[in-house]
Structures are given as C-alpha cells and as structure tokens.
Amino acid sequence: MSCRVCFLTGSISTAAGGLFVSVRRLCQSLNQLEGVNIEIVSLEDGASKQDITEWRPLLPRLLSGVGPASFGYAPRLRSVLSELKPDVIHVQGLWGYQSIAARQCAEHLSVPCLVSPRGMLDAWALANSRWKKRLAAWLYENKSLRRAACLHALCQREAHSMRAYGLRNPICVLPNGVDIPATTAYSTEAAPALRSIRESGRKVVLFLGRVHPKKGLVNLVKAWAEIQKPPAGSRNSAWVLAIAGWDQGGHEAKLKELATELAVPWADARDHGFHPTSGLSLVFLGPRFSEAKVACYSQCDAFILPSFSEGLPMAVLEAWSYGKPVLITPECNLEEAFAVGVALRIETSVEGIAAGLRNLHEMSRSELSAMGARGRDFVTSRYAWLQISREMMSVYRWLLGGGQKPDCMTFG
Question: Which CATH number fits domain 3-177+384-410: 3.40.190.10, 3.40.50.720, 3.20.19.10, 3.40.50.2000?
C-alpha cells in the first residue's frame, strides 16, 4: 500500500531548534522505506536557503510568509497542499496558521490529519504566553486538535498532557530517534575552547540547545555559583560549565549579567583573544551545528539539561549516542533513564540542580565513562531512527485503513 505524506512544519532551518533535527531525520528515515512518498512544506526564514541542503535527498517546498513570523501566515499554503493531494497530512507543532490550513485541507480532500504537538501541550508550555495561547485555542487550535484523526506524543507523559487538555483522539506514542555515530572519538578542531579547557586538566559539563528561559539556565547558573562556595568549592573548580546554543530573545545576555552579579568568572569563546584562564568557571560558546556540535559532544565530560518542559529532548539522546553521562530533570520525559542508571536526576530548582552537580563532581573518570557507555547502549537499543520510522509508517497505514492497529496506539 503506497502512501503520500505531506509534512507541514513552521521552519526547515536551525531556527526551528530541536525540530530541525527531529522532523528532518524522521522525514529522511521514512523516505528510505518502500511505499512512502514524503513531501515537506514550510515557510522561508533567514537560514532556510543555507539549511535546506541538510534535507537531501528531500527538497522541501518553501513559501513566503506575510505578517507576524510567530503566526506563520502563508497565502499560498492551502493551495499548495491541495495541489500535492496527500494521503496524510502530518503537522509539526501548534499555535500557527499551519494548524488552520492543515485542518481545512484535510477536510476538503477527505484525508486524515496527524498532529505532532512536539511538547507544546505540556503544562509549562501552555503557561508560557498563556493568554495568547488561550485566544489562539479559542479561535482555531482547539478545533484543529479535536478534528485531527490522530495525535502524536513523544512519550507517555506527553500523551497524559494531551488527555489533561481534554483531547480524546487516538494517540500514537513514538519517541524522537537519534543517529548513532560509529565512534565517539572525533576531531577536536571544531571545539578549540573545550579542547583547551580539557588540556588544562579540567572537565566540562555541557549544555547545548536553545538558550531560552524554558531550559532552566537561570537556575543552572545560580546553582553553578552555589557549588563554587567553600568548603567544596576547590573540588568543583575542576569543572567548567559550557553553554552552547542559539540565543532567543536576548536570554544569553541575561545569563551573562547574572553570572557577573554572582561573581562567577565567565568568558565568551567567540571573543577575540579568548583564552581559558585557570580561574574560568563558565564559558559561552554560541550556536553550534554540524561538526561544531559533534565536537562539543566529543569534548565534554557530561551533559546537563535542567529544563522546565520538553517533548523528548534531542540533545539528551545525542549526548548518550556519544557516550556521555547526563543530568536531566523529570520534565525531560526520560524517566526510564533513571531506573536503568544512565542519567542523574536533578530537580528544576537551584537546590536540586546544585545537588545533582555535586553528585556528578564526586564521580571518578571511570565512573563517568561507565555511565556514558550505558547511555550509549540505552539509546542504541531504543531510539534508532529506522525502527521509529517503520512504526510511524504503520500509523499512516492504519489511518488509511490498510493495517492492524499499531502497538503504539492508545485511545481515550
């Protein structure tokens, strides 16, 4: 049974954050399967012309937007969807014009619409810009969600959030995947700042992702300042915190101001003449993609994500794939990782993050290496893209009446 699936996403560039990896790799993995034809429709942005090559062999169709970028209104979107005549429309994310266009085209063409909220119905996400989202929900989003043939949750916790929102649609629970590198040893040239820090005998705990309040970075910097205090400060000074990622809304500048107020010695690796002095405790790396991102994972000793809200964080899966121990909050929706000993649990509070960091700093290099190796085995066995794409394909076929109910399905 052949199937033509049209993915509708707000951005195909790195401006989409983690969706740039998760949506792209799902599309590319599905494209490798027999009997499926993948089309991607999105809006142009400042980075799309550069990043579109990462989607090869797929070629997304980019449309011009009009009005506020956050709403993503594209006058040609409905007509392009109708011209493609998809068997399934698969929407990525909420709160924009794509929700309206997808619902209207699905009804016009009499095809099923599958919606992947990507964590946007979690409690923290709903509370952020609460009144704007309540208005959008009343105007169009609730109607689009309730009429979706199926919803896609990245984990059981996200499925519970959908039910708590009042949705009773069928839900398929399928995680993001990750590409498992053949080796964890890579060139260090793309991360000279981290290489220099490690050559000085210190260890690096890395955050890599969108620099945004949701990620809990304010509490991370406060916790980092707290653990430098005596009597254990000398032990903790053997570590440097590295924050890598694309800034959103000037949040990085606020973190630098906070670090200065808390007397945390920091530096920006992008500054001319940067040198990791012995007193350096915090370094800002800026955006890191492709080889530079790989080098960051290769050169760190541990990874941390103190987030308030996630769907299923790609960065954590990537850190595991490079054999790194991770510190994560329960809000990262990877509860099983604590049970099998591949992650240190931290809470979102300053005290909770500080406690987790102290535990990390007590671990020997051999203990760090062993936890990282367990994490690599864990992610390899559960999050390979090919397996996930096959399960998603079974959902499409079920929606089209051509297959048995997939095991990943749940009903309200």
Answer: 3.40.50.2000
